[in-house]
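Archive entry. Fields below.
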Amino acid sequence: MLSPISVSLANLNMALLAPMAILSFGALIVICIDLFNKNLDKSFYVMLTLLFILFDFTALIGLSGSKHGFFNMMLVDGISILAQGIILISSALIIITALSNKPFKEFKKAEYYALFMFMIVGFQFMVATDNLILIFLGLETASLSLYTLIALHNRNKAFEAAIKYFTMGALAAGFFALSSLVFYALTGSVELSVIEKVLSARNYAPGVAILAGVVFMLIALGFKLSVVPTHTWTPDVYEGSSAPLAGYMSVVPKIAGLVIAIRFLDIFLHAHIVWVQDILIFLAVITMFLANITALVQEDVKRMLAFSSIAHAGFVLTALMIGSTQANSAIFLYWILFMFTNIGAFTMLWIARHKKNLWDSRYQHPFTKFSGLVKVSPMMAMIMAVFMFTLAGMPPFSVFWGKLYLISSVVDSGHIVLAVIMVINSAIAVYYYTKLIVYMFLKDPITEDGNIYIANSSTPIKVVVGFSLAFTVLASIFVEPILTMVTQLMQSSGF
Amino acid sequence: MEHILSLIVFFPLVAVFFGFIVSKESAKTFGVTVALVEFLLSIVLWIGFDKSNAGFQFVEYVPLISQFGVSYYLGVDGISLFLVILSTFMTLVSLISLNIKKDIKNLVITILFLEMTLVGVFLSLDMILFYIFWELSLIPMLYIIGAWGSGQRIYAAIKFFLYTFAGSALMLVGILYLGYQYYIATGTWSFSIPDWYLLVLPFSTQLWLFGAFFLAFAVKVPMFPFHTWLPYAHGQAPTVGSILLAAVMLKMGTYAFIRFSLPLFPDASVYFLYPVAIIAIIMVIYASMVAYAQEDMKQVIAYSSISHMGIIVLGTFAMNAEGITGAIFLMLSHGIVSGALFMLVGVIYDRRHTKMISEFGGLATIMPRYAAIFGVVMMAAVGLPLTVGFVGEFLSLLGFYRVNWFMTLLAGTGIILGAVYMLVLFKRAFFGKLVKAENKALKDLDKREFTALIPLVALVVVLGVYPKPILNTIDISVKKMIVLMEKKAVLPDTRELLLRVNSVGGTK
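PREDICTED_STRUCTURE:
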């Protein structure tokens, strides 16, 4: 006979669930409101979503230290809090861009906002656990919502992007499940902490099974992080989805993936298993080179930014391989700085969106579109140039500091050659970012009408851009507090 | 005088932001005024500068990222003082000479931004801060060449940008590695140069780091074989771009040799003395020969710049007070002379829209004042005694004579070759008969051009006759640096060489 299970509420540690619960509640409320009143303006939904995200955020910053809850299902430690913070801030910025000047079908639907919130919840669950099953659930919740959000954009390209992303995502989910299966078979647990204990007790044998598990997991995470060779979906999906969602995809799923990668790889890096490091170095180098070289020949700014975000992921991957506190802090510092800049850059494309492809039959944002922008719309050209130089790692803008700290952590771990490869890549990358600047500043304008470039602009969007810009330009001041915070949280969670 | 260095660095930047509001018609006057104030500020700095103090003065220190040792650290010594004044002076003169009408406001703003980065490079005492200004200086130059240049301007601008950016990529790894070495040695992170000066590195480490830094500086100087971007950039750049590029931006590279390579890696510097000197001699002779073969006036001056930079590098690597002081003085004089020469070519280009020497001839009869000024500046360029060009060139070669007399002899032929190509240029353009009909109606220098050129000519003569106040101030800081190099050297060979090349002058 089963003995009765008594659970005290304190053991459950409900506070850990609060952030996600708030947002799920918000999503349900949005759906309920939609049942009663179908004629609500998008500004209402955006503000409501923003309010719940803010609410979520306040619940989040109340948490501190490493805490387990729900029978070890949930684990909220330093990196989890940090990652959730990044997810929420970028979500807040992205949802504001829905208040565009031009009307779009998807923003009128309440489902868009409900799905958006469910997606955030999914990502939050992903980073707030070390249980492979809960990670999987979070991953799927978030991804399925995201596929739908992309498809809601209601263009042929968007459907193509959604289906492509869905197919690839399904494949990745399969690999994730396979990897979990292998580790469950090996250790009898789906919790990463238990897996680590069991594996180290038996000295990481049998090697073949572990190799299979690690490779499956790297493939699954590779899809999320868009690491070569599992990056092929990225440019097409970014191109097809609306610019803010593309910007969102380049930041949020990746930080969630990075957290899982840090948690997962820590098992093997602590044990100094060399081949895991070798695989990661190989992936990082090939990702940087391939993405940067492919980006050189892109004709569309959005696709160029897609490849650039792949290259940035490759850049961060190098730190993943090191696994020291400095390297892990560098990942988060880099990603926080990168987040603002990249969201800013994609929002600029969102502003420049036009119903028709005026300049090219295939692309919405070909380079030629921006010819001589400085003479037509100088402010926009300046801001775009700052974002491009920042992504290129030009000092003293934000990403430079991340790059500096990241390369420093690589140098400190003794991988000088890898550091040299990284700077060579940032030298290659400069070319394609400069290409846009050359078009904007040095070529002659193709149109006199500057309004074409700011057709989709509105005050809220300008606020988002201004916020990103201010953070990007004044980063030198913010780096110190961010770095201190990141390092503290990283040390407290033991990475 | 508390924050005068911050003021000098950021005054142009603040002016840039205000410049956006100034109307297009007043943009040039605004630029000149700002540059004048900036120049006066640098003169105030010189007046307040303590000539008997060899160390860094007016130091400002604010930690930026204390955990990682990055700080906002400014300071000036005898080595950097005159380069700062040169930057502010040349910016002022080039803005006065400006006569471009197209997008003048953007151009003025860009030049002021460039001035900030140039001054920042020379005043930074934190390596990361230095790197920031070093890289930032590329952006305005990219824009100046690309937007106001001629011919293949975009190609030239991108080539310049990518070449120099890629060159300094390795330096970043070097900086971070050096920072880590400091962390290992002391337990704290620091990127400040005075801190790094105290760090004694093993020889093998020095070799690698010297290489990483050398590449960045060599591209900037530009040293053979990384010089190919320079003729392109000069060829397409507008006059103002050429002036600032030749007069100030190239000096960043040679300044960095003196500031970083020599005192941070004394053993590696001595180890690489001969290879670097050979490259420098190749620069001197090869560039002179190429200059002789050019048909375009601007290209002649561009290649002559490479040749002169060769002598500066040679003087720097003489490792003694005469050589290095001479090299720094030659940076100043070359800044003045090459700036003046590019401006003079700009004058004739504005009138005829060509720079081909064969298009001219007999200009002396129609433009006597122009010919006279060109003559004086040209004499300085070939290093005639009693002009500014002579002092630095002579001291640099004198310094290197202690190292190796034969190589000095080879480099000395550069002066003769320099005289050859410059005098031929002068002869073909100014003497002979005035044959071309288009040249008969040319106007002589106007007021604007005079205002810009007269200060330069005056400096050419004054500093040529009496360079002592400048030399003394430079010398004291250079001597301090050489003492530091000798103290830090880990190999006996290095110490021996330093003592040998310095003994006659009695610097110790």
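CURATOR_NOTE: The radius of gyration of chain B is 22 Å.
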